[in-house]
UniProtKB/TrEMBL annotation:
Entry superkingdom: Bacteria
Signal peptide segment: 1-21
Official protein name in the record: DUF3558 domain-containing protein
Organism: Nocardiopsis endophytica
Protein keywords: Signal
Length: 217
């Protein structure tokens, strides 16, 4: 099924209300009224330069200079977005989603691609896009080895769903260790993942901004 991705000039599901004084450049996002779970009094703070974005009726916040690449939920942090823009100028056709981008995935339990068991497993990081940085996009890409599985965490979205997250520290021969991360929303069968984390990118902020009030699995 095709996925729809649009930048929102005005919030459709998320309701904006003033949270802090005008000098802070912050407003408060609150979930839309599509479901009873979305009646939370808590909101999500938007900063100056943030944009509202929607993919397949999942609403979220893109921080300043982040870009949505294509229409299938590829959310690239500034450095990866700049590199992808340069690559697009040199090559014809669509640019692959960068390994440092956050990827929004749907119906993840189908075929056992991502499950809750993965979050507690030393092999839960093994996804087709998680390869050694120097071999991304190559045939026979090098596979990293586990250094450490980080402590699991969870949080609640403004629309009421619980997000469970996990991270793994990996290494490749001759290279510096890097991290790969996974966020899972079991009730919606939706996941976010980053193959190779950019330490300068605030991925958690995007994950925490998700509003699934209008999303139907």
């Amino acid at each position: 099924m095709g996925r729809r991705a649009v930048a929102l000039a005005a919030p459709l599901v998320l309701v904006l209300s003033t949270a802090l004084s005008g000098c802070t450049g912050q407003v408060q996002l609150r979930p839309g009224p599509a479901r009873p779970a979305a009646s939370s009094e808590d909101g999500f703070p938007m900063h100056k330069g943030d944009e509202l974005h929607a993919v397949n009726d999942i609403n979220l916040v893109l921080p300043e200079r982040w870009e949505a690449l294509g229409s299938d939920g590829c959310l690239a942090p500034p450095a990866a977005a700049e590199e992808a823009d340069g690559q697009h100028g040199r090559e014809d056709g669509p640019v692959p989603c960068p390994p440092a981008a956050m990827r929004l995935r749907f119906n993840v339990s189908e075929g056992g691609s991502i499950s809750r068991a993965d979050l507690d497993s030393d092999t839960g990081w093994k996804r087709p896009n998680v390869v050694c940085p120097g071999s991304v996009g190559q045939v026979g890409s090098a596979v990293p080895a586990l250094v450490k599985r980080e402590k699991r965490d969870e949080f609640e979205l403004v629309s009421g769903e619980t997000v469970e997250q996990a991270a793994w520290r990996l290494k490749c021969e001759g290279g510096a260790p890097f991290e790969t991360r996974l966020w899972l929303v079991p009730d919606a069968d939706v996941a976010l993942d980053v193959a190779i984390v950019d330490p300068a990118a605030d991925y958690d902020r995007i994950a925490r901004s998700m509003d699934l009030s209008r999303y139907t699995p």
